[in-house]
Amino acid sequence: MEISNETPIKKTKRLTSVVWNHFERVRKADICYAVCVHCKKKLSGSSNSGTTHLRNHLIRCLKRSNHDVSQILAAKRKRKESTLSLTTVSHDEGQRKDEIITPVSFKFDQEQKKEETINLGSIKFDQERSRLDLARMIMLHGYPLAMVEHVGFKIFAKNLQPLYEVMTNSAIELDCMTIYGKEKQKVYEMIHNLHGRISLAVDMWTSPENTGYLCLTANYIDEDWKLQKKIVNFVSLDYSHTDDILSEVVIKCLMDWDIDCKLFAMTFDDCSTYDDTVFRIKERLSQDRPLLKNGQLFDVRCAAHIVKSIAQDAMEALRDVTHKIRDSVKYVKSSQATQGKFNEIAQQVGLNSQKRLFLDCPMRWNSTCLMLETAAKYRGAFSLLQEHDSDYTMALTEREWEWVSSIAGYMKLCVEITNVFSANKCPTANIFFPEICDLHIQLIDWCKCEDDFISSMALKMKAKFDKYWSKCNLALAIAAILDPRFKMKLVEYYYPKIYGSEAAPDRIKDVSDGIKELFNEYSMCSNSLDEGPARAGSSLPSTSNGTRDRLKGFDKFLHETSRSQSVISDLDKYLEEPVFPRNYDFNILNWWKVHTPRYPILSMMARDVLGVPVSIVAPELAFNTGGRVFDHHWSSLSPDTQQALVCGQDWLRIELEETNPSSSHSALPLLIETN
User: Fold this and answer.
1) Are residues 204 and 330 in the same domain?
2) One domain for residues 477 and 604
3) Is-contact 603 523, C-beta < 8 A?
4) Do residues 196 and 607 lie in contact, with contact meaning Cβ atoms separated by under 8 Å?
5) What are the pLDDT digits (tens) for 368-378?
6) Range of 455's domain?
7) Cα dist from 493 to 437, 462, 577, whole Å
8) pLDDT (tens digit, 9 = 90+) per residue, 316-338?
9) Number of domains in the chain
10) Residue 118 lies inside a defined structural domain of this protein
11) If you count Cβ atoms within 10 Å of the first and of the last residue's Cβ in the chain, which end, N or C, has fewer?
């Protein structure tokens, strides 16, 4: 029934009953009505009628809409009780005992929509869910566990939900351990069911308390041909640990996860420090089963680390000159007058560079490279500035400027290579070979420089690089060959530039033989897997109709001959076919996913090779001169809790990105700091 000629009553007095959140008072003639906002039913609304009949109607009306009526009608009482309960919140030790905590009043905005009020009333509070959500938040964002005992957090939580029970530090720690245990079981089952192999990244961290940490990250390509990486262990170590202790810790972690038999390669961040450790691990794993290629591909060293190490060697050699340039840039930028004078001088010598002078951040070596590169463009202006300004005494000699130009050019190459490495947080192994070869060629040219300072520095850097190259060149080359855009052609292109035209053919043959030997081992593994079901089927004494199967021998013959043909043709077929057109949008994992039926054995090998972590430096730390430092909020916790928080944080971040692709990994605060 429509209500006509009605006039809403202007509120002159606040209606105290919560029921009036669901009725509108209107006047028709001299009679007041209460109109239900949900069903538009008209009831008596005079002040003498009370609200009992309105409550009874509201119960019937809201039940039809499945709303929690009891919570709606009790909202006022709960607001009063929760306001009073805030005075019982305990104080932090640092807070004055007589300090009064001012509670926030629990009053809904009078302008709030009535529909929103109903939805709030229908929510049922779950203490257990809230506890686990809080624990996940702390793990995900690296918050200190002690935040649950901060008075500000307690007030916030109580105001947000009066029914929330304030937790202790130890209680939230137990919740974090519970989450870690459940997530670890998921990761374990996933790794156990993985058909391919796993490669392990081994990284060392430090802490403000000078404690060492071993961080192990499993890298693999999953069944959907997506590259995955998960931190599986985070173990505290004494700084006085020996190679024996380190190798035993790694082996124990492998055994705990049951991945010792699935290991393809291990990547360490340094070229020489871990040689004894790697030897012991290889020796221990070889006792159970031989390593692929007799372990030639097992020991991989971090590509980004060698690039950064060589760049830092260059900066160290140029340290005194770099200080001069840094002081010169500071001097020019010290005042507007000095900057103006410098700009005039730059115009006089015909410098129209679009790049302005740049002052570096010494902890970021790419910024030092940019400072040197920019300063070298103003070489003439700096030289002339000393003649016009007697206070400027930091001018470089002509020879020093030659050093700056040469080293800045080399460091720029290192920056470009590092940018390629860090462009993707999970790069596949195929992208590293051409970048490392370019670096190798540049070092060879530098060693031939006529300037003794440059050539002697380059020889030291190349000696360090050669250690890396001797360990990793075969693994890098095989990964590049498994890129259908390159195949053997990239090796044939670079090796003459590196080894010369006479030695290159033998080196190319070594790579060709290496990938064939690896492929043959995968073929043998594939054959052994195929023979299991075949043998089981051959044990059947008769065919389905009870007669003896006289062609079982033929089945075996067909299986063996077909298998040998596929082994011969699989790799050769791939190498003989034309290379795939090179473009920037190429996704190598998608390519192998599509071509798995065509190259069944080679695709198994490609899955394992491309999943090797050739670089283990986090993209956001690629240019930092320091290492990883464990967050001080967590470094004081027990070793078990530290491992649970670090591993759990990594797993929860991955889960968050999978369920919410719009959330960026880099948008989350890092658990790590840098020196």
Assistant:
1) no
2) yes
3) no
4) yes
5) 999 999 999 88
6) 427-531+571-580+587-612
7) 10, 21, 18
8) 999 999 999 999 999 999 889 88
9) 5
10) yes
11) N
pLDDT tens digit sequence for 365-401: 999 999 999 999 888 889 888 888 888 888 899 999 9
**Burial (Cβ within 10 Å: 0-12, 13-18, ≥19) of residue 146:** middle
First to last CA, the chain: 76
Residues 431 and 576 in one domain: yes
Evaluate if residue 203 carries a pLDDT over 80.
Answer: yes
This prediction has a pTM of: 0.75
The span from the CA of 194 to the CA of 174, in Å, is 30
Residue 671's identity, in one-letter code, is L
- 378 is written with which tokens? 């103003």
pLDDT tens-place string over residues 395-430: 899 999 999 999 999 999 999 999 999 887 779 999
Tell me how far apart the alpha carbons of residues 379 and 402 are, in angstroms, rounded to a whole number. 10
Q: Hey, what amino acid is at 370?
A: L
Task: Report the range of poorest mean pLDDT among 257-271, 467-481, 518-532.
Answer: 518-532
Residue 479 and residue 597 in one domain: yes
- Sign of the CA dihedral running 515, 517, 519, 525: negative
The kind and range of the H/E element at 331 are: helix 319-332
Tell me the sheet residues that pair with 254: none
- Dig out the tokens for 204 from the structure: 């060392």
Overall average pLDDT of the 107-135 stretch: 62
Instruction: Specify the 3-state DSSP secondary structure of 94.
Output: coil
322 and 412 inside one domain: yes
